[in-house]
Amino acid sequence: MVGSQEKASQQPPPAGGVSERIMPHLLNMYGSCATARDFEIYAPNATFEDPLMRAHGVKQIKSAFYTLPKVFGESKIVEYTVQENPTGPGRTEHYKVLGKPVDLTSLIRLDVEDGKVVKHEDWWDKKPLNKRETVGFQLVGRLAEVSRRGAMLLTHALMGFGKDPTSSSSSSD
Asked: Which InterPro entries does the entry link to (predicted)?
């Protein structure tokens, strides 16, 4: 796929801004109704990270988001704003855990290159993720990174290694 990567970098990014091209897909993903098409916003080697998981590549990102409806009774973004600077007001997510509503204000940070998301971070309560670069003691940050990576690998295995859910009733797997 080296040739296609070279072509992608020579092509202009798709028309429309982040809100027109990317937000509808993010709303589907966070709303527990994502389809394979929603993940086309990501570059092949994109990363996704939140306080629980650290995903590398589109298949792991799929596993992270396909987990939402299995963990939460309800999941949706109820309010959001799109801004170019990462210090904006964020968005409010609504989840149901064990039947009880939980609202979470978070900040989604996206790095976009050639029209594709290459880095996606979800900061809960708008607090930076614990990493070597963001904590006072680097070993603590490294342990947090390793824990998120381990959680992702377990989730990835449990979710069929990024396999898209089937929408039809039967298939010959």
From this structure: NTF2-like_dom_sf
Domains of the chain: 18-158 (3.10.450.50)
Of 114, 111, 119, 30, the residue nearest 72 (C-alpha): 30
Tokens coding 150: 């381990």
pLDDT value at residue 2: 34
Non-local CB neighbours of 168 within 8 Å, separated by 6+ positions: none
Tallying the residues shown for the chain, one arrives at 173
121 Cβ neighbours under 8 A, 6+ residues apart: 48, 49, 50, 108, 109, 110, 129
Chain mean position to CA 58: 9
In this prediction, residues 133-148 reach a mean pLDDT of 74
Rounded to the nearest integer, the mean pLDDT of the chain is 74
CB 115 within 8 A of CB 131: no
Q: Which two tokens stand for residue 12?
A: 């202009």
